Amino acid sequence: MSSKITIIGAGSVGATIAYKLSYEDFASEIVMIDINKEKVEGEVMDIEQGTCFRSPISIIAGDYEDAKGSDIVIITSGIARKPGQTRIELAQTNVNIIKSITPEIVKAAPDAKYIIVSNPVDVLTYVFTKISGLPENQIIGSGTLLDTARLRYGLSRHFNVAQKNIHAYVYGEHGDSSFVPWSGANIASMPIDDYYKAMKDLGADLTELDKPAMEEYVHKSGGQVIAKKGATFYAVAVSVVELCNLVLAASDSVATVSSMMHGEYGVDDVCLSVLSLVGPNGVQGKVPMHLTDEEVERLQASANKLKEVIAQLDI
């Protein structure tokens, strides 16, 4: 299947997504759009000069009208998070950028599935949903897909088990109020505590999982990367390309992405991440994983934190 994918924003995240997509069989056309014309032209040249090792692909530095016919539009534009800065502090500046982009890109590609990556992603997904005029199923925030990947990596290291055997998720805001619903986390179909006990019985050299410390790792690791190298872009690019793969697949998959809530778990009129059905028709709905009362309270608290920010914004 050949697909056309447009990426708005040629910064580190957008360029890395384009590079990763350039080696995926499902992408046959990539359009990169950025206000910095020379930067985007340079990124395209650098990427396309390495495409001789794959089947032919079109990669261009374009404008909004070049997005016509896109299957997916990925929005990465925005001011990058600085060391010590929270995602929420970025809110109004990046909301203004989204507001300027939205009418132009929606006019060019009204039928595309939109993946919002810019931070704060939940706030920007909400704003895009409110102002774009598009059906909600076409709008997907990358949400806690990256957080979930970080969680699975951390659990994999702790238990010395392949990440593909781990099913655990991060819910809520892509940020400090996110949390892990441990009641639904498992390894090889076993609750995590049961898996630990079973492995100890088999003689494995393991320590019991410190769940608050693991959540802290998920919360802080992105900031640590930013402090050490200035930005995060490899892991988020892989997560977004996987999300593209889910949207272009023949059947639905389950993933933690951000989309509008309509009363699920008592949460309404805000975008955040819970398990959702994602596929060729976009976001098809929420997967009702059972949460404990405490987990529902944590989800509602995360939603309220986002609502407090949204209430202060000029949308």
User: What oligomeric arrangement do these chains adopt?
Assistant: single chain
Which class best fits the helix and strand makeup?
alpha/beta
Computed over alpha carbons, the radius of gyration is 19 Å
How much helicity do the residues have? Answer: 40-55%
Mean pLDDT: 95
Order of SSEs, N→C? EHEHEEHEHEHEEEHHHEEEH
Output the number of helix runs. Answer: 9
Pathway: Fermentation; pyruvate fermentation to lactate; (S)-lactate from pyruvate: step 1/1
Binding site for NAD(+): 9-14, 34, 39, 64, 94, 100, 117-119, 142
Active site: 174
EC number: 1.1.1.27
Write the layout of secondary structure elements.
Elements: E1 3-8, H1 12-21, E2 27-33, H2 37-48, E3 58-61, E4 72-75, H3 91-108, E5 113-116, H4 121-132, E6 139-141, H5 145-159, E7 166-167, E8 186-187, E9 190-191, H6 192-201, H7 211-229, H8 234-248, E10 253-262, E11 268-279, E12 282-286, H9 293-311
Parallel strand pairs: 1-2, 1-4, 2-3, 4-5, 5-6
Antiparallel strand pairs: 7-8, 8-9, 10-11, 11-12
Helix pairs in contact: 1-8, 3-4, 5-7
